[in-house]
Design goal:
By secondary structure, the protein is of the alpha+beta class. The protein has 24 helices and 22 strands. The chain is elongated, with a radius of gyration of 67 Å.
Length: 780
């Protein structure tokens, strides 16, 4: 073993010690007589060589020789010094060599002891590690003398067997802990080792003293003796209990899986990469009619329906190559010869490292579901036909119900409206009769004619109320300040309330403007005042109020959120219960006695509010009076025109015109003709549209066409207007109508003005003036 040289300080000390010894001798005996090759220098050489080695001993020898040459001396004092120096060199070299040999021997002995100690320590560490590994892994080493049955057990053997560490090693003590059911196996193993000199691996159970059962694996070998006979058995015991338990759990899990799979009524399989199956369940085998092994390699293409074969092969190749879930559905031939629809689902199975290991698949027999779906489709078709028939029957029943409701409404109308019209006709007929009997009494005649005209106007107003409720009477909306309209109608409203019922006004809407039909608003407000007057008793009162409100979504029935002008008519009358309030806006519903009302007043007001984009409500309770409110949308930023003063007929009298009048009612035609002739016009009449069109086509010259909308024959007044406009684009046209049906509504959307019946001479004069462009600005 090579050792590191001593440090330089130690070497210098050794050389210095040898040189100092020589110098000391020279000082004592004298350099001129006493230097020579003296034995006193040899201990210094020995010290340096033993401590530092031959090289440094040689260096010290050379240093002393050099010093001797500087101060030469000799034994005899005057003889030559060279022989004595040579003798010194030889003795010094022998001393250095002998001291070096001694040093090498000592070092060799020291290295041997060091190697032996290191080997002992390494062996002890190795044994310790082996013991720890055996204990941790349940591995125990054993050695048996086959002739004596005694041997050696490692501590791990005692530990795994659960025996005391001082128990003697013997076959008997070992056999005592072997499970009774496995002792025969151990005996056979021992006999085989004794007879055949072979020790095969064997697994068996042991029962520890505490009752715990463990599994052991014995592995070993037989060492033969000098004569070749089995002499020693050496080997290891390994505790494999956990592995055995894991294997048992795996077997149990596989058994449960197989039992579950075999009990499932669906086909199940597990395949490897490439498609080869490694497991199929009982239902799979039963469908094919083969055993397990044959089912693993069965070619399903032989059972696929010919119409599904190409499609399924393409879908299966695409699904398997994607290594992703995929489904198939096709017809397969079962073992009993029946074609069955199978719906299969395949999902990839992955290894613990995430690698692809094949597919797990299941297949359901969906033949009955397919059949049920087809049956359901047929049932749906039958149901659709029956539902269509039922809907037709329902529509017929609803039509019959609506017809019955209309008949009921007509019946309700007869009692009220017919009574009111009879009263009005009585006034008209009686007044005209009296005027005719006494034509010379001018004052009486004028009074009767005025009474007849007033009654006729009330009849027209009643007709407008009916149409407004039915929403068949088109409105003519214009911008109006609500407070101004009410203020203008105050005299009429007070006369309607009567002298016995005080009527008060609180108008706070200010400059608020609404886009409404002014005439319909007046009628609605008049109806509310009349109803309030009839509800109060002696001493009661009626009030009209206006204000601007902000309504949120849902505040008003059927109207959106926004700003509204609220018009309220309040009375201090008897009030209404909840049942009456719920029906107050129904047509023909009235709480008045028979003949006292038609039940259309509140209906007209409600219809007017809804047609104007607003709503209506009622607030009442028995004995607390009632308040009816109309909500009219506010026209933000709009400004209403000031009301125009009335213009007499003569002020708008146009030039004399040639007018073609088309009217099928002889009385209306005669009256209209007289009104036009009174205005100075020439009038020619036709009682149907086709006759009027022929006169136009014949080239007769006319300045104006006036036609009723609803006419007998194939052409209506609207059709006539279109045809005449094509012939004479420059000819003015005026349409008239007292009908509220589709033809009149159609006329409302056409470019020609529409004059509504009934009308008086002033209305007709204004309409004619507007249509021919004379005085139109006065009647906007």
């Amino acid at each position: 073993m090579r050792r590191a040289p001593p440090p330089l300080q130690a070497l210098a000390l050794a050389v210095g010690a040898g040189t100092a010894a020589m110098v000391a001798r020279g000082l004592i005996v004298g350099f001129d007589h006493g230097y020579g090759p003296s034995l006193t220098n040899l201990p210094a050489l020995i010290l340096v060589t033993v401590f530092a080695g031959r090289r440094w001993g040689t260096a010290t020898l050379l240093a002393t020789l050099l010093l001797g040459l500087v101060w030469p001396s000799d034994i005899g004092g005057d003889g030559p010094a060279a022989p004595f120096h040579l003798l010194y060199v030889l003795s010094g070299a022998a001393t250095v060599w002998a001291a070096g040999a001694l040093r090498d021997t000592v070092l060799a002995l020291d290295d041997a002891r060091l190697v032996q100690e290191n080997t002992r320590l390494a062996l002890a560490e190795s044994e310790r590690r082996l013991r720890l590994a055996q204990e941790a892994g349940g591995v125990g080493f054993w050695d048996f003398d086959m002739s004596t049955g005694h041997g050696h057990w490692s501590p791990a053997v005692y530990q795994t067997l659960g025996l005391a560490a001082d128990l003697p090693v013997s076959i008997a003590n070992f056999a005592a802990v072997v499970h009774p059911e496995d002792r025969g196996q151990i005996r056979r193993m021992v006999r085989q080792a004794e007879a055949g000199g072979r020790l095969d691996p064997s697994e068996y159970r042991i029962v520890r003293p505490d009752g715990e059962v463990r599994w052991m694996l014995s592995r070993g070998d037989i060492i033969p003796g000098q004569g070749g006979e089995p002499a020693r058995a050496v080997g290891v015991n390994i505790d494999v209990t956990e592995r055995r338990r894991a294997e048992a759990q795996v077997r149990e899990s596989e058994a449960r899986f197989r039992a579950l799979a075999d009990s499932a009524p669906i086909l199940m399989w597990v395949s490897q990469p490439g498609g080869r199956r490694e497991f199929v369940n009982r239902a799979y085998c039963d469908f094919l009619g083969d055993d397990f092994e044959a089912a693993l390699v069965f070619d399903w293409r032989t059972r696929l329906h010919a119409d599904d074969l190409d499609r399924i092969l393409a879908e299966q190749m695409a699904g398997e190559s994607s290594q992703a879930p995929f489904t198939l559905e096709a017809r397969y031939l079962r073992a009993d010869g029946a074609w069955r629809w199978l719906h299969s689902i395949s999902r990839p199975r992955l290894a613990p490292d995430g690698g692809f290991r094949g597919f797990i698949g299941v297949a359901f027999d969906v033949t009955e579901a397919r059949q049920a779906q087809a049956d359901l489709e047929r049932i749906n078709e039958l149901l659709a036909e029956r539902v269509e028939a039922a809907l037709a029957e329902r529509d017929q029943a609803e039509a019959a119900l609506r017809h019955a409701q209309k008949l009921e409404a007509v019946g309700q109308l007869t009692g009220g409206v017919a009574h009111d019209f009879n009263n009005l006709l009585t006034v008209v007929i009686g007044a005209l009769d009296l005027a005719q009997r006494r034509p010379d009494d001018v004052e009486r005649r004028d009074r009767m004619i005025e009474a007849a005209l007033a009654a006729a106007r009330r009849g027209g107003q009643l007709t407008h109320q009916l149409l407004a409720f039915a929403r068949r009477q088109p409105l003519t909306p214009q911008l109006h300040r609500i407070d101004d309209l009410i203020a203008q109608g105050e005299p009429l409203l007070r006369r309607a309330a009567g002298d016995a019922v005080p009527l008060s006004f609180r108008l706070e809407a200010g400059e608020a403007v609404c886009r409404i039909d002014g005439g319909q608003f007046d009628a609605a407000l008049m109806n509310l005042v009349v109803n309030a007057r009839d509800a109060v008793s002696q001493g009661g009162a009626v009030s009209i109020e206006t204000q601007v409100i902000d309504a949120r979504e849902g505040d008003l029935d059927g109207a959106p959120a926004g700003r509204y002008v609220q018009v309220s008519v309040t009375d201090t009358g008897v009030g209404m219960d909840a049942e009456t309030r719920a029906r107050i806006f129904e047509p023909f519903f009235t709480t008045k006695a028979v003949g006292k009302g038609t039940g259309l007043g509140l209906s007209q007001a409600y219809g007017f509010a809804r047609q104007s984009g607003g709503s209506a409500s009622v607030d009442s309770a028995p004995g607390r009076g009632a308040t009816v409110r109309l909500y009219l949308p506010l026209a933000e930023g709009a400004t209403a025109k000031a009301p125009a003063a009335g213009v007499p007929v003569e002020a708008v009298r146009p030039r004399s015109l040639a007018i073609l009048l088309v009217e099928d009612d002889p009385d209306v035609a005669h009256l209209t003709e007289e009104m036009l002739r009174a205005l100075g016009h020439e009038v020619r009449r036709c009682d149907e549209a086709s006759a009027a069109l022929r006169r136009m086509e014949a080239g007769e010259a006319f300045d104006l066409l006036i036609s009723d909308v609803v006419m007998p024959g194939a052409l209506s007044g609207v059709d006539l207007a279109r045809a005449v406009q094509a012939l004479r684009p420059d000819l003015p046209i005026l349409l008239c109508s007292g009908y509220a049906g589709a033809a009149a509504l159609d006329a409302e959307n056409l470019p020609w003005p529409l004059l509504r019946k009934p009308f008086v001479g002033e209305d007709l004069a204004k309409a004619v003036a507007q249509v021919i462009g004379q005085g139109a600005a006065d009647f906007e």
